[in-house]
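User: Here's a structure from my thesis project, written as structure tokens. My advisor, Dr. K., wants to see whether a designed sequence matches the one we expressed. Can you design one independently, without my sequence as a hint?
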């Protein structure tokens, strides 16, 4: 990666080119040592099970750091986060359990990465091998969420509190926003310490895939064209298809590692950061946490989900939700006549730079170069 300007209040031209090309950019020292130390101290003093997301020591990592001016310039205005995801991953050996993809965790390549597009409903994956026809397995799976058996319905919620579909007509199978911010609080310069991993450059493929889906029948995301929800051809017979196979295939080659069944998996890139660094990505980037196998301490990354205010100027976005067109718990929100939130979100998903107002010149220039 190119040398980057320290503590810049806006992205350099080079950084914008990196963001366009890779789908993410790491900003060195985006957050001051004081803010990092305050967040670490707060994590240290947390009670068991305490949700630190709304604590100012966490939200200040965006609201009082260079992340805010950088995003204001590159993206546009957004609601200052009032909460966030505190991504702590303890040091853990490879696991026997089934992961979300239906494989034994220890068998999943690249530190058990499960690259996915965000906003996807996740019901806890069955820990026993499923029996029966695919339709039965699907029915059982969607009935095992926190709201019980509702059949195939936009009321179904995952254990991650994401709705199965965003819209009443079930044409939008993903929640969406504009930007991810990953703020690093501990030394993550060596791979295998639980880092966030990203499928570099795959944002272009995801955007194209969304466009293709939309052109087929207006359905976008999971359960749209080319993207079934479940894979039954996996060890537990009920794994989530977190990323459409067509997108995965573009990143698979002869070097790709395999699971024991011989299936190849795209190799993601672990983002290596130091305390105070922040990684900004577009929503469309496939990403995953990874197993903290070799760390000497828990991995600590604070994760924010940011949406450009222009998508829905009247709706408050809290900084953690990956489905802000519904309430945090799946509540239906009111929209004024003529405002179709699902269409707006599909448009944003299919046109990823539209909400990056400060990126337009870079995008135009780089498209012209190709
Ligand atoms: Fe995610």
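Assistant: Designed independently from the structure alone:
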């Amino acid at each position: 990666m190119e040398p980057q300007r320290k503590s810049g209040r806006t992205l350099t031209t080079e950084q914008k080119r990196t963001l366009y090309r890779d789908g993410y950019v790491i900003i060195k020292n985006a957050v001051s040592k004081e803010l990092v130390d305050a967040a670490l101290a707060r994590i240290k003093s947390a009670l068991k099970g305490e949700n630190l997301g709304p604590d100012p020591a966490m939200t200040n990592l965006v609201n009082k750091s260079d992340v805010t001016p950088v995003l204001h310039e590159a993206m546009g205005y957004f609601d200052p986060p009032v909460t966030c995801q505190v991504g702590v991953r303890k040091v853990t050996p490879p696991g026997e359990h089934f992961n979300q993809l239906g494989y034994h965790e220890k068998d999943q390549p690249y530190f058990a990465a499960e690259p996915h597009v965000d906003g996807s409903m996740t019901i806890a994956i069955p820990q026993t091998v499923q029996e029966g026809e695919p339709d039965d397995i699907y029915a059982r799976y969607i009935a095992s969420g926190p709201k019980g058996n509702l059949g195939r319905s936009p009321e179904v919620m995952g254990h991650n509190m994401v709705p199965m579909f965003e819209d009443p007509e079930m044409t939008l199978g993903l929640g969406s926003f504009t930007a991810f911010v990953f703020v690093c609080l501990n030394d993550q310069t060596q791979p295998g310490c639980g880092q966030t991993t990203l499928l570099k450059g795959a944002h272009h493929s995801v955007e194209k895939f969304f466009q293709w889906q939309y052109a087929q029948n207006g359905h976008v995301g999971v359960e749209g064209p080319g993207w079934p929800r479940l894979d039954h051809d996996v060890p537990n017979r009920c794994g989530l298809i977190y990323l459409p196979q067509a997108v995965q295939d573009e990143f698979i080659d002869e070097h790709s590692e395999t699971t024991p069944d011989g299936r190849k998996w795209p190799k993601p890139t672990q983002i290596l950061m130091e305390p105070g660094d922040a990684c900004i990505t577009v929503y469309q980037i496939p990403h995953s946490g990874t197993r903290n196998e070799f760390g000497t301490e828990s991995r600590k990354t604070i994760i924010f989900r940011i949406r450009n205010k222009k998508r829905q100027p009247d709706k408050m976005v809290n900084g953690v939700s990956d489905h802000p067109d519904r309430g945090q718990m799946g509540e239906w929100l009111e929209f004024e006549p003529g405002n179709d939130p699902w269409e707006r979100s599909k448009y944003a998903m299919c046109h990823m730079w539209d909400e990056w107002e400060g990126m337009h010149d870079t995008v135009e220039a780089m498209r012209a170069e190709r």
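When you compare it with your expressed construct, this may help: The domain at 13-369 is CATH 2.60.120.620 (Jelly Rolls).
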